[in-house]
Amino acid sequence: MKEERSKSLTKAELNLMNILWDKGKATVNELVEALPEPKPAYTTVLTVMQVLTKKQVLTFEKQGKANVYIPLLSREEYLNNFMDETRDSLFKGSVKSFLSFFAKHEKISKQELEEILKEMNE
Length: 122
Prior knowledge:
Blueprint: H1 11-23, H2 28-34, H3 42-54, E1 58-63, E2 66-71, H4 75-90, H5 95-105, H6 110-121
Antiparallel strand pairs: 1-2
Helix pairs in contact: 2-3
């Protein structure tokens, strides 16, 4: 994967990417419609989509006068990259420290941990 595509997304970029991942593809108008109130301006969404295109996270196809945006990066690929970067930068690459943080922070019960371990072993 290209390094450009592994960059973290801003909150606004991630909000739009979540819509695209759910829909598969969308125009700017469709994205604006899918956003909650208060809806951003069409030009604001267009600008974010142009940034995401430059980051090589999505591409677009012309459909009449509109661009239809299509993710180049799946939600799982982004999540894998994000979690790897988080583990490496905040937990010095330690999976044990990374998982311990979440287990403590989320107050995971012993039973939940056992269920997680069971799932991991399957």
